[in-house]
């Protein structure tokens, strides 16, 4: 018998210190440990209440423990959990129909995360180019400060050196250009490019919206060279901008779209959506995943999609965005020593820190947490906000009060 086995393994006391003792230190989580949540409200081990304006990095778009999602998951959990990929299932077929009917896509591939969705998209683009044009057409163009996942392939395509240092040699034939730089795009995208991948709004890179002219030029260059245009909508999709997907609001249609995060409202699922022509590239056995498209994930995602993809719901996201942006702009005006401007789209917003607080976005985040407000950062220069799409006017007002209290404590200390 294992001497380390504890018969109370499911109920033993654990604290933040336990993380440092038993988990691989790839994260540096907050000191508090959340234990319960509903909507945008969250409580830690000590019973302290927090207003969550992170939604798990734009994941729980319908709020924590949304009753509709809980009901759907519970029902499916008592019906059918998993099948090997030698079989299909009804929930995944319904989800694929719903996503293709709601978007430009004809075909869907399901996996477990945004990284896996992007991995599939990049493999599809390479395979398509090799099949149609030959092996010389293999180069991938991405943008600096982008983020596309943590696999070795996707982290190499992402344009942030801090995430690739120490993992060399990296996959070859990947180049990066400045975001929103049309001339750089024209110089980089030639006949040897198989794919151009871009976030319509850079999330981790600082909550920077893509210029419509830039995105349209990427579309034109891909049409000219035969490259595949991939939109990474892992963070910007599923209603976050007030459109079901951000591409719908900029008049640019990609060849491939990747989604995850809010698609499952916290249940792991990713999706790659594409056209009939490109989908033919991946035949039986060329790509796969054990858990992708399982009945549990597909059921949750279908419930989330059906809830978000309604005119009234998306209209409310835009209304909430306008109220939150006005609130943030007033905070910027009242605390010019801390922030300079607000940018982003819908309910994915960033507050850029001023010179006096340069490099201190984490300090602002910690000050907010002390007041019972959960917010995100995007690097050291931007405070990022991604509340659940169901955020109310009252919660926006509550955010305003908590943020101001945090900023008052921070500026007095300075």
Structure notes:
The chain is an alpha/beta fold and 414 residues long. The chain folds into two domains: 16-65 and 312-413, Aspartate Aminotransferase, domain 1, CATH 3.90.1150; 68-308, 3-Layer(aba) Sandwich (Aspartate Aminotransferase, domain 2). Helices cover 37% and strands 17% of the residues. The chain has helices at residues 16-22, 55-58, 67-77, 90-102, 114-132, 152-157, 182-188, 212-225, 276-279, 295-308, 311-334, 361-370, 393-413; strands at residues 34-38, 41-44, 49-52, 107-111, 139-143, 174-177, 193-198, 201-202, 208-209, 228-232, 256-259, 270-274, 339-345, 348-353, 373-374, 376-377, 382-385. The strands form four sheets. A seven-stranded mixed β-sheet has the order 4-12-11-10-7-5-6, sandwiched between helices. Strand 8 (201-202) and strand 9 (208-209) form a beta hairpin. It is globular. It starts with 15 loop residues before the first helix and ends with a helix. The mean pLDDT is 96. InterPro entries: Ac/SucOrn_transaminase_bac, AcOrn/SuccOrn_fam, Aminotrans_3, Aminotrans_3_PPA_site, Class-III_PLP-dep_AT, PyrdxlP-dep_Trfase, PyrdxlP-dep_Trfase_major, PyrdxlP-dep_Trfase_small. Its EC number is 2.6.1.11. The modification N6-(pyridoxal phosphate)lysine is found at residue 261. N(2)-acetyl-L-ornithine binds at residues 150, 289. Its main location: cytoplasm.
